[in-house]
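S.,

Sequence below, as promised.
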Amino acid sequence: LVTDIASAQNLMSTIKRQMGPVSDQLMNTAKGLIKDPFIFDYLLTRNREMAKKMEMRDMENAKKTGYFVNAVPKVKADSLFHAILSRYSGKVVFMDFWATWCGPCRAGMEQMIPLKEAYQGKAVEFVYITGPSSPQKTFDLMVPDIKGQHYKLDADGWNYLSSSYKISSIPRYM
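The prediction came back faster than expected:
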């Protein structure tokens, strides 16, 4: 029973962390590990609920505006920061380096909403940069709720920026 509970907690943690259901393959693996049918049925129910929740969120996100996912400029890593900034010439740029899994990052974005509203329509751009440690699916789900300009860097770009500009709140992607 203790092993079943520990396995169930691990799987639920995965569902919460990725903000979506786990694959059928992973559920089949869990079925082989979890012997108690009540615990497995509970997991199966939660996984299905999460799948329905994500479908609803996808439909809601399709209606949202004010966010833009931009192509990362195709330049060398040492020119990336300036290439992104150059797109906003003549504007004040508020740049936020974040990760989908970073609680303080997400809390900070919530706290920025009144500031964004105060500067709406003015020469201010809110630019959000994340790296490969943010899963694409989770990024796609979260970004519609974060008004501004978004960039999802590859490992080279993220590692260069995080080491060159001392992004200390988010660990470098390994």
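The beta strands are 67-69, 92-97, 124-130, 148-152.

Coffee later?
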